[in-house]
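Please produce the structure of this protein holding iron/sulfur cluster.
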Amino acid sequence: MNLINEINKLKKEKDVLILGHYYLDPKVQDIADYLGDSYGLAKKAMDCKEKIILFAGVVFMAETAKILNPSKKVLAVTMDAGCPMADMINSNDIIAMREKYKNLYVVSYVNSTADVKTQSDICVTSRNALDIVRDIPSKYKNILFVPDKNLGSYIIKKTDRNMILWDGFCCVHNDISADTIKKAKEKYKDSVIIVHPECNSKVVEKCDFAMSTSQMVDYASKNTDKTIFVGTETGVLHSMKKYNSKVYSLSEKTICKNMKKNTLEEIYNTLDKEVNEIVLSNEVLKKAYIPIKRMIDYTEKRNSQ
Ligand code: 13P
Ligand code: SF4
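Below is the modeled complex.
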């Protein structure tokens, strides 16, 4: 059986949009209708006209798609693809923090569960976090940022906004060592180092630019003559190399095993049987929509200015 042909057949028959993240295995990236970073994927899900969204990514991304477009059937390729960082905080933790700190404004990185989003004031992604936090009204004396302490520290540095940081992190990004940057620069002294802001602060301090995955792809497309070293999951190199062959990984070990659970076999089975449907209660759908929609409204308004 040719899995790619079969998936394409099912896609047509069932009126499906396949959304995929840049960290997927290259073969899986190639069958997606749209590839993007967390923000781009959320926006695409919100505007989707097809009957079914098949989400190849991690589960919080599929949940976000359902929250933004609840009348669609949203399928996660596999429910086994979690994001360990998203599970480092739950909604009760936020409720407890609200009791401890009065007048608390809660900013949730989109890498969080739907439940955590129900207790949040606004969401951010790596693409819009700096602008959103910078513009939080100054009347909020206490800002809590969850769950990623690395992204949070980067935002504090760049915006000068004081934030309380949750002690979460992405083990995939946190493990990249600053030494890899030194080695890259020794090998190619004119190379540019771009990293994801989920990397630890020693890496982010030494890089040339921190950015989201789709911004990395965009950077490669606009800088086709530069040697670029990338500090993020290695999957993104597949899309970057379409524009620039001189793109390297700071560390080949930077692999998100959860993203890699989205195989062609799983995609075929999920589509065929229409399993792994994202089901959220009406209350969660309604409450979690508020911070995500706030983020989208803010970002789209800014993009149109
Ligand atoms: P992006 O939004 O930059 O694609 O990042 C998502 C993610 O999970 C990074 O680990
Ligand atoms: Fe989560 Fe890290 Fe994988 Fe991104 S790379 S999905 S933050 S575990």
